[in-house]
Amino acid sequence: MNLSNYLKLKNKIPSNVNILAVSKGFKSQEIKTIQNIGQNDFGESKFQEAYEKQLILKDLQQINWHFIGRIQSNKIRKIVQNFKYIHSVDSFEKLHKISNISCEEKKNPLIMLQVKFSNDPNKGGFNPELLILKWREIQELKNISISGLMTINPKGISSKENLELFKKCRSLADSLQLPDCSMGMSGDWQEAIEAGSTWLRLGSLIFGERA
Ligand SMILES: *Cc1c(COP(=O)(O)O)cnc(C)c1O
């Protein structure tokens, strides 16, 4: 990791756009180094890997942990106990379960619902029309705070296509009056900013290539 790259990147990003440093595949020491210069939001996609780092870093209380990976039902309790944000809620069923467990655990996680705007078979997510149909029911769920939508674009599409898909996410979030859009990764963060992202999920751009 190169701290001056991180600082340069930070200067290019508007102040209303948050950086989520995606630390999956990187060690707790690397998290510590970048946390030391003011990066407090970290994203992880596998519970066990994340939890090991959380234990090592438990004294760094300013860190906000974000879960961004595929959610297995049998891990929901642990995710609710250990993460402030959950970006990757991709079905009503899981959202409902998160709500029930959050009630039991007296937690109130911030949620971004993952939405799928393309036909990428490798990606999960709510279908936008179904999300709209379920919206009233979703809003009645207790002990969750839905702050926005999250999306992952398919690999290998053009810059223009990236921008179009991100704009769909932004406009759906606006129509549901949700402030946040978690969108944009190391390869498409500029388009995401242009479309109105509020959370860029950046891994390799900050930490370097994963082994
Ligand atoms: C790994 C990952 C990222 C970061 O990917 P980079 O290309 O390294 O920036 C962002 N979002 C999700 C959901 C990821 O799994």
TrEMBL record:
Alanine racemase N-terminal domain mapped to chain residues:
4-210
Q: Which Pfam families match?
A: Ala_racemase_N
Q: Which residues carry this modification: N6-(pyridoxal phosphate)lysine?
A: K24
Q: Which cofactor does it need?
A: pyridoxal 5'-phosphate
Listed GO MF terms: pyridoxal phosphate binding
Query: What keyword terms does UniProt attach to this protein?
Result: Pyridoxal phosphate
Q: Which InterPro entries match?
A: Ala_racemase_N, PLP-binding_barrel, PyrdxlP_homeostasis
Q: Which domain of life is it from?
A: Bacteria
Q: Which family does it belong to?
A: Belongs to the pyridoxal phosphate-binding protein YggS/PROSC family.
- Function summary: Pyridoxal 5'-phosphate (PLP)-binding protein, which is involved in PLP homeostasis.
HAMAP family, per the entry: PLP_homeostasis (MF_02087)
Protein name according to UniProt: Pyridoxal phosphate homeostasis protein
Please give the organism. Answer: Prochlorococcus marinus str. GP2
